Amino acid sequence: MEHEMIGTCNSCSYSKGFKFGGGRLKFQNVCLGPAINLKTGKIETVNYKMYDPINYKLYTNEELQSAHPEYLSKYKFGNFTINPTGNFCPSCHKKTFDFSIKVTVE
Q1: Terminal-to-terminal C-alpha distance of the chain
Q2: 43 within 8 A of 91, measured Cβ to Cβ
Q3: Would you place residue 105 in the very low, low, confident or very high pLDDT band (cuts 50, 70, 90)?
Q4: Interatomic CA distance for residues 98 and 83, integer angstroms
Q5: Where are the domains of the chain?
Q6: How many Å apart are CA 72 and CA 34, to the nearest integer?
Q7: 3-state SS of the chain: helix, strand, coil percent to 5?
Q8: Are 75 and 101 in contact (CB under 8 A)?
Q9: What is the pLDDT of residues 71-97, one digit of tens each?
Q10: Could you tell me the pTM of the whole model?
């Protein structure tokens, strides 16, 4: 399943929509998720199965996430896991960026 998600900062009100996961017909080679473009500092949607780690840092990276207890739910698709709260905001650079699902597409 592929989700349309939105990230919103609780501190500066920055928000960004993105796709998360892979569709039914493309899940084996496409898994979309949020990442920081290291050159521009902006959040982008990348295919985590085929991305350039020199240019992008995925939100699975511990540097972009705050400590999140294991018992709290997370968003998962395959090996790609992101915390729903306490993520790095590309606008204000605080860990106040939260993810939520808007729509699920099969």
Answers
A1: 5
A2: no
A3: low
A4: 8
A5: 2-103
A6: 20
A7: 5, 45, 55
A8: yes
A9: 678 887 777 888 999 999 999 999 999
A10: 0.83
